[in-house]
Design goal:
The chain is of the alpha/beta class. It contains 6 helices and 14 strands. It has a single domain, classed as Purple Acid Phosphatase, chain A, domain 2 (4-Layer Sandwich), CATH 3.60.21. A hairpin with a 2-residue loop joins strand 7 and strand 8.
Length: about 300
């Protein structure tokens, strides 16, 4: 679907008047000119249990879905450790419950999400129906989450988008990682992701990588795998507030900061054969954004379970 098609469909030979014996060769183009279809992605990364802004992030994306059918909402991992929810001692439950209610289309887990062990991560993914993607891992057979897939394909209006997850092979050491284990098997990234991208090339118009590797590794992936159209990344808390395409590639990379401070927004235009439009911005999660009532209710429910402060 992504291969450029030849425009030459035939030639018409027309004899010139006056018996001069000349010919005119006219070429017809089979490429139908049409207005590009747009897809808008919203992206978060490295939330780290900072929950106070999550209801507004969810509310903002919900408001965009109300007016645009071609919206995808993705997250690049590191949900656990650091924010006010970490102090509740729920071992990742509180933030995962909020993530599950926010309407994500795809998420990849980060290194901090192994903090409470692979079985706990798998349990929370299925309990809160997180649509996780990771194509470079093998879960232990007895705990593999039903919700975990290597990739997900979205049939939107006028365009098909594939989102492939890339998890990081880094378990520890680190703070709050005492329960981390080595049960997850990590596959070589270039080979496993390269094979997946090649397989999806005929099934999807736009191929997106959702990674938790850091900006440097994302740039290396873009250089090594030319079939990637977009990379949304996390891990090093970087941010990109304008179109960033590494030299020598056609891959757009966006990172969206940390702690729910910002939402990454990327709009791409698809003309039936190629991406012809790219726009990027960061949306500050300010008080004037709409709030998701459902996510705020979950937030307050967990906060109400917190023990009273000691004097």
């Amino acid at each position: 679907m992504r291969t450029l098609r030849s425009s030459l469909v035939g030639m018409v030979i027309v004899a010139l008047l006056g018996g001069l014996g000349g010919v005119v060769l006219a070429q017809a183009d089979d490429h139908e000119v049409r207005s590009p279809v747009t897809v808008t992605f919203y992206h978060t990364a490295d939330i780290h249990e900072h929950a106070e802004r999550l209801p507004r992030i969810a509310g903002f994306v919900e408001s965009r879905r109300d007016v645009d059918p071609n919206v995808l909402f993705v997250d690049s991992g590191d949900w656990f450790n650091g924010g006010e929810l970490a102090d509740l001692g729920t071992r990742g439950e509180a933030v995962t419950a909020m993530l599950g209610a926010r309407g994500y289309d795809a998420l990849v887990f980060g290194n901090h999400d192994y903090s409470f062990g692979t079985p706990r991560l798998a349990e929370l993914i299925d309990r809160f129906a997180l649509p996780v993607v990771a194509a470079n891992v093998r879960w232990p057979a007895d705990i593999e989450p039903e919700q975990a897939e290597p990739y997900r394909i979205f049939e939107l209006e006028g365009v098909t988008v594939a989102v492939v997850g890339v998890a990081i092979d880094f378990i520890g050491p680190g703070y709050a990682m005492q329960e981390a284990d080595e049960l997850m098997e990590f596959l070589p990234i270039n080979e496993s992701i390269g094979d997946t991208v090649a397989m999806l090339d005929e099934r999807a118009d736009i191929i997106v990588l959702l990674t938790h590797l850091g900006m440097r590794a994302d740039r290396q992936l873009a250089e090594a795998l030319p079939g990637i159209d977009v990379i949304f990344g996390g891990h090093d808390h970087a941010l990109t507030d304008q179109v960033f395409i590494p030299v020598g590639t056609d891959t757009i990379i966006q990172h969206s900061s940390q702690d729910g401070l910002m939402i990454g927004e990327m709009t791409v235009g698809w003309d039936g054969e190629r991406i012809v439009k790219r726009e990027v911005r960061l949306v500050w999660v300010a008080d004037d954004l709409p709030t998701s009532v459902a996510v705020e209710e979950i937030h307050q429910e967990y906060l109400s379970q917190a023990p009273p402060p000691t004097e």
